[in-house]
C-alpha cells in the first residue's frame, strides 16, 4: 500500500452521515480516565518493547517528543534518561492529565496543543519521537510521518495494534446499525506506506498483556462503547449484553477487552547531522 492507498482505505472507515446526525453525543475522542489509568500502569520497571526501542536511542539527559501524548504512557516510562518530554495532543483535557502525571513522576515536561503535523512548525526537535496508537486516526499518513522524522535527531518509534483498534467492534456495528465495517488498513499497511517513503523501517510484533487501562465503574466502560456506537444512553443495557465476556473486571478496573492480538512496534533511525 502507498500513501494514496492509505487515504482511500481510511475513507472507508468514515461513518455514514445519517448515523452521525442521529448520534446524541460525539463518538470521537477518548475518556481521560482511560488514558490516566494507562499512564499510571506505565513505569520505568515495566517497559514495553516500544519503550525499550525509544530508550535505547536516548542519550543521558535526552529529550522525547510524544505525539498524541494522551496522559503520557508512551513517554513517562523513559523518565530516568530524560531531561525533558514534550507532549503534543489535540485535547486540552489530555494535556492537563499529562502534566498531572508528569508532576507525580517528577519529570519536566512541556505541552503543545493541536493536531500533528499542523503544529509541527511550533514543535522543537527531540532526540526521540514517540507516537503510540495514533496511526489509525490519520487520514493522510505520509505528511504525518515525514513530520515525525523531521523532528527526530536519532529515532522515531511508533506503536499500534495489528488491526484497526475498532475492528473488533464489527459485530456491534452490524447488530445495532446493520453497518459493515472495513478490515484495512492494518499494521502491514503502515509499514508498506513508510517504506514507500524511503524510510528504513524495522518491525516487531508480539502478544503482550499491554496496558489496557479502564474505568472505576462498569457503567462508564459500557457508556464509552455506547457513545462510540452513536447510540442513546437508554441502550446501555443492550450494549452491555452485546459485549458479553468482553466486558471484564481485572480486580482494579472495568475494561472492554477485544480479542488478543499482537501489538506492533515500528521504528527507524534518523541520520545524525554531519553523518556520512
Cα(first) to Cα(last) distance is 31 Å
Q: Tell me the CATH superfamily of the domain at 3-18 and 25-162 and 186-211 and 259-269.
A: Vaccinia Virus protein VP39
* Helix content estimate: 25-40%
Q: pLDDT below 50 for ≥5 consecutive residues: which ranges?
A: none
Largest sheet: 7 strands, mixed
- What's the SSE pattern? HHHHEEHEEHEHHEHHEEE
Derived structural class: alpha/beta
Which CATH top level class of the domain at 3-18 and 25-162 and 186-211 and 259-269 fits? Alpha Beta
Shape: globular
* Secondary-structure arrangement, i.e. CATH architecture of the domain at 3-18 and 25-162 and 186-211 and 259-269: 3-Layer(aba) Sandwich
The average pLDDT is 90
The name CATH uses for the topology of the domain at 3-18 and 25-162 and 186-211 and 259-269 is Rossmann fold
What is the radius of gyration computed over CA atoms, rounded to a whole number of angstroms?
19 Å
Q: Going across the major beta sheet, what is the strand order?
A: 3-2-1-4-5-9-6
Q: What percent of residues are in strands? A: 15-25%
Q: Using DSSP, what is the number of strands?
A: 9
Count up the helices.
10
